[in-house]
Design a protein that fits this description.
This protein is of the alpha+beta class. It has a single domain, classed as Alpha-Beta Plaits, CATH 3.30.70. Helices cover 37% and strands 31% of the residues. A 4-stranded antiparallel sheet has the order 2-3-1-6, with helices on both faces. The chain has a two-stranded antiparallel sheet with strand order 4-5. Helix 1 runs antiparallel to helix 2. The longest helix has 24 residues. The N and C termini lie far apart (45 Å).
């Protein structure tokens, strides 16, 4: 019988809400690839593994160009820095703005994606 991991040993995660400011619209996979490649350049492979960065597909709003990224709570500032380094997607100028951070997925979605 497999035992569950104790809460004190689990990875603590946060959800960072972001918005893409551009005159163009981008699909989820394009945005995800740009974010992950920027994080890869900034953090390296080991940093990416420790940060546990996941761009959440279900929480990306195509119309508003907003989404959520799951990250380890110790790597929030590194994720924000790597997002700030992205200035082009498909040779089109963009700005990725961090809207906020939450420890609860539903709260992050309701406050930053749905509400704002």
């Amino acid at each position: 019988m497999k035992k569950a991991v104790l809460p004190s040993l689990r990875e603590k995660k946060r959800y960072l809400a972001f918005e893409i400011i551009s005159q163009y619209k981008f699909d989820f996979m394009t945005v995800k690839n740009a974010i992950l490649s920027s994080c890869q350049l900034f953090l390296g492979q080991l940093g990416m593994a420790k940060a546990g960065i996941i761009v959440l597909a279900d929480n990306f709003d195509n119309k508003k160009q907003k989404g959520l990224i799951r990250v380890n709570n110790k790597y929030i500032n590194e994720l924000k820095a790597s997002l700030a380094l992205i200035n082009k997607i498909n040779n089109k100028n963009i700005i990725i703005k961090s809207l906020g951070v939450s420890g609860i997925l539903k709260k992050a979605y309701d406050k930053y994606i749905k509400g704002g």
